[in-house]
Structures are given as structure tokens and as C-alpha cells.
Amino acid sequence: MTERIFENTQTAFALKTDAELDRAYFLFKLISVEPLVKIGTSLTNFAIKAKLPVEGIIRTTVFDHFCGGVSESDCLPVVDRMWEAGVSTILDYSVEGKDSEDPLDDALAKTLEIIDFAKESRAIPFAVFKPSGYGRFALFVKKGGGGRLTQAESAEWERVVQRFEKTCQRAYDCDVPLLIDAEESWMQDAADELVEEMMRRFNQKRPIVFNTLQMYRADRLDYLQNLHQKAQDSGFKLGIKLVRGAYLEKENERAEEKGYPSPICASKQETDINFDSAVSYCLDHLAQISLYAGTHNEQSSYKLMEAMHERKIPREDPRIWFGQLYGMSDHISFNLGKAGFNVSKYLPFGPVRDVMPYLIRRAEENTSVAGQTNRELELLKKERERRKL
Fold first, then answer.
1. Res 368: pLDDT
2. CA-to-CA dists, residue 22 to 17, 56, 82, 154, 361, angstroms
């Protein structure tokens, strides 16, 4: 039985000052009240659209808790502190998808910059980007749905492909593994096809390109097994990042509105089984599949630790990584790091206004995940009391 390491709040919050601990407690207390989150997000959206001077308030509260800063250099002190505590960093330029070409090219330039940055730092083992950061969301939807692209759209799609190619080539040249995030199911088919093509080209020797599977989708375990079969047939390696999923309410609402069966598992328990089964599948085929387990779930983390122990896989095996988001689940990340496992934090950064959609999603996600916020509060309270003693 794996030792229950996640109760150690001294290790979990070692990097937080008393003031930061109090701020975290206050934030999660607010997030735990669903009506407050709804009112807060509406007011924040309004204030930003109306160009009201709210950046200072946002910066000193929610932004500084969940983000590393507005630029890479802002993030460096956080990167260094976490590295000393045994936790790596993934710099995540969290500007959500735009519809015009300039921001798409800006996102490409920023990702290439981060890959170069990561090449020089052992503390930054991966780079990451979102497909909708590289192409218009509606274009992914049309392409994946088999719609006939106009001449202009075909040229636009070609530019999306070129952005993917340029990024994967740079990651390959720098030997920096690249995580490509998953998004809503109705745009994901086109993204999956593109990522698969990149894997064929750049994962011949080792996994450079990682696709992300959201395991709250009922079809993703089958998808993983089919993709593995293709990789075996064509002789390339798989990089797989597993997460539970971030668009639950959106997925169910759209399915109901459009009258198709929801792609989401019928229950939280089914999602958990799906996630853990996918983890086991990856471990059973570790010669071909490298795994990044992005999870805030303690049970799944313990199960992965136990499975590694049973299979006699060393804790520091470079093919297995745990991951959490900055500002959340420090009790998992820092205790895993101290125990010698490979673990990293996604560290979002970017201009305050541009990162707000990401932050709003974080707040909503915490509200909708039963027990997540209460667990954070319980641990923060425990550490505050420990420090008083």
C-alpha cells in the first residue's frame, strides 16, 4: 500500500508565505460559493469589456494565485522556487483562441520562444499550446465535421497546418517534448488528425508530440487503443497526456441543444474508471507510450504510484509524469516531488485581460468539481493551524 503522502501540508505549502496562504484560503472560500462565482465572472467580463480599471484588483488576487506573471521573465522566480522543491514547470501562454491571424501568429511566436527557453532549462521539461491558439475555432469545427472548405478557408487551414509543423519541428530540433491540449469535442476531430500526423513525422525515435485525451469522453479509451494500433503499424511512438476534462457543462448543454447524445460519460464514477483504465493501458505499453497524467484526483495519483511500484518502474522513469495546475493541488505536486516522482505544474502567464477567460474557467471548474474546493480549504486550514502552533 502506497504511503498516504498527500496529507503533509508542511511540504505542500512550504513555498507560501503566511499572507499567500491567507489569500489562497480567502480565494477558495469565495470559489466554494457558486452564486458568487457566477456574479463575479459576469462582473469581471463586463468590467473588462467596458475597459474599467480592474486589472490591479485582479492582478493582486486571482491572477497572482493562478498565474506566474505577464511574461516569461516574470515567471522565472516561481520556476526556480518550484524546481528547488522538486517540481518542474510548464510555461503555458494562456491567451485563449482568437479569430484573426495576428494573434494566431503571435501565439506561434510565443510557443517557439518557450521551446527555446525550455531547451536551456532542466526545470522546464515540456512546452505546450492549444489548437485554437493556432487556428480559428469555427475552422476546426468545419474541417473536422467534413464540411467543404472554401478556397479562402483552405488557404487558412494550410496556415494552421504550417503553424503546427513549425512548432513540432522546433520541438524536435530542441528535443523538448510538446503537449498539445484538448478542447471541445466538436472541434477535436480536426485537431486529433493533425496531431496524429505530427506524431507520425516527429515521434519516430521518441515521443516529442503528445496528444491530450479528455477521459470524461466515453469514446477516448477506444481512441487510445486504436491510436496505439496505428502507431505500432506505422512505427511511431505515442506521447499521451491524460486529463479528466475541462468543458463538462458546455459539452452537455450543446448536446442537449443540438439533439445528439452527449459524448460525456454518464457519471463521475465512469469518468474515473475511464481515466484509470487509460493510465493502466499506457503503463502496460510503456515501450511505445509515454504518459503525462494531468490529474488533481488523489485516488488516481495513488493508483498510478502503486501501479509503478507493482511493475517495478522507477519513480524517476522519464516516460511517466504527473501534472497539476499552478495554484491548485499543491498537496499532490509538492509531496510527489519530494518523494522523487516526475511532477510538473502548468504555470499560466500572459497579459491580465487576455488570461481572464482561462481564470474564469478555473473558478467555474473548481465550483463544479464536487469536493475539490472543500479539499483545498481543508488543507489550507490545516496548514494555517499548524503554523500558529
1. 59
2. 9, 19, 20, 52, 22
DSSP-derived 3-state class of residue 50: coil
Q: Sheet containing 238-243: give its strands across.
A: 88-93, 343-349, 320-325, 289-294, 238-243, 209-214, 178-180, 127-129
Per-residue b/e over 157-192, b at no fewer than 16 CB within 10 Å?
Answer: bebbeebbeebbbbbbebebbbbbbbbbbbbbebbb
Q: Which residues contact 51 (CB under 8 A, 6 or more apart)?
A: none
68-354 has which CATH code?
A: 3.20.20.220
Q: What is the pLDDT of residues 184-195, one digit of tens each?
A: 999 999 999 999
pLDDT in tens, 311-348: 999 999 999 999 999 999 999 999 999 999 999 999 99
Residue 42 neighbours by CB distance under 10 Å = 11
Which amino acid, 29? K
- Under the banding of pLDDT at 50, 70 and 90, the label for residue 367 is low
Please tell me what DSSP assigns to residue 147.
P
Q: For residue 365, what pLDDT is reported?
A: 66
d(CA 79, CA 375): 25
CA 120 and chain centroid, separation? 22
Beta bridge partners of 325: 346
- Which are the contacts of 167, defined by CB distance < 8 A and separation ≥ 6? 108, 111, 112, 115, 129, 134, 178
Alpha-carbon dihedral sign for residues 308, 314, 315, 316: negative
Task: Judge whether 240 and 292 are in contact, CB under 8 Å.
Answer: yes
DSSP helix/strand/coil, 348: strand
Q: For residue range 82-106, what is the model confidence (pLDDT) as tens digits?
A: 999 999 999 998 876 555 568 889 8
pLDDT given for residue 257 in this prediction: 94
The cell numbers describing 311, all together, are 511493475
* pLDDT value, residue 1: 57
| Residue 95: DSSP 8-state | P
